[in-house]
Amino acid sequence: MSLRSLSLGALAAGLVALAAPAAWAQDLTKPLPDQPISPLPPAAPPATNANEVPVAFAADKVEYAQNSQDVTATGNVVLRRDDQSVRADKVTWNQQSGQIVATGNVRLIDENGNQLFTDRVELTDELKTGAMENLLIALRQGGRLAALQGQRIENGNVILTKAAYTGCAVEDTDGCPKEPSWRVTANQVVYDEAGDRITFKNARLELFNLIKLPLPGLRISTSGGSVGGFLVPDFRVSPSNGIEVSDSYYWQIAKNRDLTGTLHVFSKVAPMVSGQYRALTEHGAYQITGYATSSSRIPISGGNATSDRSFRGYVFANGRFQLDPNWSVTASIRRTTDRTFLRRYDISRDDRLRSMVDVERIDPNSYLSISGWATQTLRRGVDQGQVPLALPLIDYRRRFDDPLLGGRIEAQVNTLAISRKDGQDTQRAFAKAQWSLRKLTGMGQEVTFTGLVRGDVYHSSDNDLTLTDLYRGEAGWKTRGVATAAVDVRWPLIGEVFGGTQVLTPRVQLVATPKTANLSIPNEDARAIDLEDSNLFALNRFPGYDRIEDGVRFTYGVDWQFERPRWRVKANVGQSVRLSNRESILPDGTGLANKTSDIVGRTEVRYRDWITFTHRYRVDKDSFAVRRNEIDATLGNSQTYAEIGYTKLNRDIDEVEDLRDREELRFAGRAAFLNYWSVFGSAVVNLTDRSEDPVYGSDGFQPLRTRIGAAYEDDCLQVSLTWRRDYQATGDARKGNSFQLRFALKNIGFK
User: What is the phi/psi pair of residue 465, to 5°?
Assistant: First the structure.
């Protein structure tokens, strides 16, 4: 065996050109080797001339014909330049003409990992011409491109004739050849080496060798990146807009920026345009999405549409920027022109849109947040003037080591200003210090001591505009002091049972807080109070800062965890008892109004990744009626599964809107069959009756939304047809049937 090094610009550049995916072989299903080219020759020495590109090669035999000035390498010929390599049975280089010809099982690999297979390749050292025959290229991202012939032209592009491309696998799971679900054919394909692009001229899409659709302007990337062009259109039928056809154009402005524009055409209403701009910067990323159209509106409460057309639209922008290892900025804007636009055009079903900005600084021992929040309500019957604007909200926390007892101290300073156009305004500031110490006894008990002090200052105005008495507070300046002491004891007991390991952890807690001024303070962030397993052992079981649970209480419960191969079970149950006779500010029905609370618990069961079951409950301490009953269960795998959710809140609270009773059933499922086919569906049913919620007006069985569909999905193609029925009308978002057809080609840049 002989090893040599050449400095041939033509050979090196020719390998670069040919290693890029710009070829076609008649057989897309040809099996390909997946191992690297071996043996590779050693790296070539540095070039002695700036215009020379060194190429290293190895071969079993090298011959030189002096008369013809041909250098011929035969037998496992391997050439390498930088990250490109080529293998062939025979390579001939004519020193006089500069022509290089590689023949016999030619395999080329470029710097991106794309592989080219051909019977014969011919090129010159000046790259003015080049020829290939019977070519097949395997792209690293999964596609295959084949052509009968390839020719390099003067500008450096490669022209392929009678070409085809597919992004599908050409082998089944057993390694047997199979026909791809789709392929793109074209009489001519142009490969742009500088732009890493392949452009198809007069391309047609063939589905299952039956359906043929034109694909004008199709381009794909050889490096796996995105390519601009038209995307596959979507089709939808809805009662509000009729037939909808939407098509998008994708424009890659730069490697870190792109823009997608979409035109939506409807049979019943005027067209709509939308666009999305995305950018990745040095410090973060952001995106801006917008919709715009002109149409008449139907009032949210129903009735006839307005006769005048007006502009309607929606904007959504968000981003996050990491300015340095500690400082970051997160922002989001969501605004729409009216309350029914998003539902009518099936963009979103949210009933409120939140906009925010948050500047954060985080280090190992401190946290600072300066933020602001604004909300646009889309709910019927809610006055936008009563919706709060929170600006600014400042929260600073810092942790210290306790030098005396060895515990941990956390200090917090918080300010909040809430304003409403037609409602109550509130400003709040407080400072808090919390000390905690965790100890382990000789018997294994975990004991945690906690002490907390806090001072509050409030100012509020227009308090009479708040409809719920419990939330108003008293107008003007108010101050409040809070002090809490607590001790929490856990005792984990570990043992074996049922062939697995269990951990039984009894837990008790004692919390004491002196009488606190609550009703004189406005309640902005502690309204939806309800006893749950998650807040049973909290120092303050109100969800925010504006209400404090005072008095002395004793809480007890037990946690149990069981694990064995494939199984895991977790459960907890507990209850609390107030040791003082002071009247509670908590409404009846929350589970905390009486001296002895209701019983709350949670149970989780998991079997591998096939069964997941979660049950959360609250049981009345006197009647044992179930006041809160939540069940979420999943059965199956990622292909075939069923999800069931049930929620029933039986609290009998009429005077507080945030704590209305509710009963709801949710279902979703998918069944896969015949390898690639599946049917799916989901439903949401409101089971609340008028006695539970007279405001909502449900009759006890009111479907809110159902969906049923069928889909075909293999490794490179996805087609789905979905039927959905909405049972409630909200303004011009009418109830009725909607149909949607989605079509996606994978590995080609089409959605």
Answer: -80, -10
The Cα-based distances of 400 to 387, 431, 436, 484 in angstroms read 38, 16, 11, 19
Torsion of CA 208, 212, 215, 221, to 10 degrees: 20
Distance in angstroms (rounded) separating the CA atoms of residues 243 and 267: 5
Structure tokens at 346: 């099936």
Structural contact between residues 216 and 201, judged by C-beta atoms closer than 8 angstroms: no
12 by Cβ neighbours in 10 Å (0-12 / 13-18 / 19+) ranks as buried
Q: How far apart are CA 103 and CA 107, in angstroms?
A: 10
Nearest C-alpha neighbor of 338 from the set 347, 327, 326, 329: 347
Distance of alpha carbon 454 from alpha carbon 521, whole angstroms:
15
Confidence tier at 610 by pLDDT (50, 70, 90) = very high
In sequence order, the 6+-apart residues with CB closer than 8 A to the CB of 623 are: none
* CA–CA separation, 441 and 199 (whole Å): 73
Residue range 358-410, pLDDT digits in tens: 999 999 999 999 999 999 999 888 899 999 999 999 999 999 998 888 899 99
In 3D, which of 183, 1, 179 has the Cα closest to residue 78?
1
CB atoms within 10 A of CB 52: 14
What is the CB neighbour count within 10 angstroms for residue 610?
12
> Is residue 392 reached through a cis peptide bond, with omega within 30 degrees of 0 on the bond before it?
yes
Residue type, 91: V
Cα 232 to Cα 245, 250, 393, 501, 608, distances in angstroms = 11, 11, 45, 54, 39
Annotate 129-165 with DSSP letters as a single string: -EEEEEEEEE-TTS-EEEEEEEEE-TTS-EEEEEEEE
- What pTM was estimated for this model as a whole? 0.80
Contact 160, 18 (CB under 8 A): no
Give Cβ neighbours of residue 707 (< 8 Å, ≥ 6 apart).
680, 681, 682, 683, 722, 723, 724, 725
Please state, in angstroms and as integers, the Cα–Cα distance from residue 629 to each residue in 589, 600, 662, following that order.
14, 10, 10
Q: Are 84 and 57 in contact (CB under 8 A)?
A: no
Distance CA 475, CA 427 (A): 11
DSSP string of 513-527, one letter each residue: E-----TTS--SS--
- Cα–Cα distance, 456 to 415 (Å, whole number): 10
How do residues 197-247 score in pLDDT, each as one tens digit?
888 888 898 888 888 888 877 888 776 677 778 887 889 999 889 999 999
Distances (CA, A) of 50 to 7, 47, 81, 127, 683: 11, 7, 15, 18, 70
> Do 602 and 616 touch, CB atoms closer than 8 A?
yes
Answer for the pair 137, 122: CB distance below 8 angstroms, yes or no: no
Least confident of 452-456, 652-656, 741-745: 652-656
DSSP 569-620: EEEEEEEEEE-S-PPP-SPTTSS-SSSBPPEEEEEEEEETTTEEEEEEEEE-
Q: Rg of the chain over CA atoms, in angstroms?
A: 35
